[in-house]
Amino acid sequence: MASKDLRIHLSKNHNLIKICLGVSALLIIILVIVLLIFTIFKPRNPTVSVHPLHLEHFQLLSPNSSIAPLGLVITIENPNYASFKHGNCSGYVKYRGIVIAEAPFGARSYPARSTTNVTTTADIETAKLINDPNFWSDIAGGVFNLTSEAKISGKVSMIKIIRLKAKIYLSCGISLNITAVNATSSCMSKLKL
Ligand SMILES: *[C@@H]1O[C@H](CO)[C@@H](O)[C@H](O)[C@H]1NC(C)=O
Ligand SMILES: *[C@@H]1O[C@H](CO)[C@@H](O)[C@H](O)[C@H]1NC(C)=O
Ligand SMILES: *[C@@H]1O[C@H](CO)[C@@H](O)[C@H](O)[C@H]1NC(C)=O
Ligand SMILES: *[C@@H]1O[C@H](CO)[C@@H](O)[C@H](O)[C@H]1NC(C)=O
Ligand SMILES: *[C@@H]1O[C@H](CO)[C@@H](O)[C@H](O)[C@H]1NC(C)=O
Ligand SMILES: *[C@@H]1O[C@H](CO)[C@@H](O)[C@H](O)[C@H]1NC(C)=O
């Protein structure tokens, strides 16, 4: 009797070990899949650059107009495996911390792992510049520096299944060389889920 009891007991334990091993293996597989998803789909910040358009025709100060339209091409490289979509929004162009123009951009989407060019026009309010003594010394120095900022609210979506709210924070420095009539820019971006 006693030995039969022991056998039943042992075989029960054996089954328990099998279940334990099975569950552990399953957990490990789930863990590996989750880690894989997080490394592949880990949100990465977009790479952004700004290029002023037609600088040769750009007239910051014209006698008749209080507004100087500056065309801008914003190149946005989305490195993620998810697309990003936003509605109407605006960026702001600042000179020495003061907003001198708003640059609107309409609703659009940025496909996964692709580069998109967005064009916009910043209507610079020249009155805000000509009253600033720094402006005249910058012009005399041949360099006109601007910064631009945007906070873009939208949605990221992955394989049309996962949809999450996201924000992109953009901040660029644009340096216009007046004598060479060209510009350089450097941008920072942050994608927040
Ligand atoms: C500026 O205004 C003057 C007179 O109001 C006009 O003759 C001239 O054509 C205008 N210039 C431009 C660039 O619009
Ligand atoms: C977005 O902007 C365009 C042009 O400014 C306008 O026609 C449209 O109604 C706007 N859409 C929304 C949802 O505000
Ligand atoms: C975006 O614009 C840049 C410079 O204007 C150009 O070199 C590039 O080919 C454009 N890319 C796309 C995807 O249109
Ligand atoms: C303009 O920006 C450039 C590049 O960021 C910088 O090297 C330069 O010192 C700035 N000049 C002025 C007048 O702010
Ligand atoms: C602007 O361009 C001129 C002409 O190419 C160059 O001599 C000068 O060093 C440039 N200035 C800056 C701040 O890059
Ligand atoms: C700006 O123009 C100057 C002179 O034409 C050139 O040497 C320089 O490489 C240009 N810089 C950029 C960023 O295009």
From TrEMBL:
Please list every transmembrane segment annotated in the UniProt record, as residue ranges: 21-41
Among the record's GO biological process terms, what is one? defense response to other organism
GO CC annotation terms, alphabetical: membrane
Keyword Transmembrane helix on this protein? yes
Q: Where in the cell is it found?
A: Membrane
The protein's UniProt keywords, in alphabetical order, are: Membrane, Transmembrane, Transmembrane helix
Q: What is its main location?
A: membrane
Membrane association type: Single-pass membrane protein
Late embryogenesis abundant protein LEA-2 subgroup domain residues are 74-167
Q: Which PANTHER family match?
A: LATE EMBRYOGENESIS ABUNDANT (LEA) HYDROXYPROLINE-RICH GLYCOPROTEIN FAMILY (PTHR31234), LATE EMBRYOGENESIS ABUNDANT PROTEIN, LEA_2 SUBGROUP (PTHR31234:SF65)
Q: What is this protein called?
A: Late embryogenesis abundant protein LEA-2 subgroup domain-containing protein
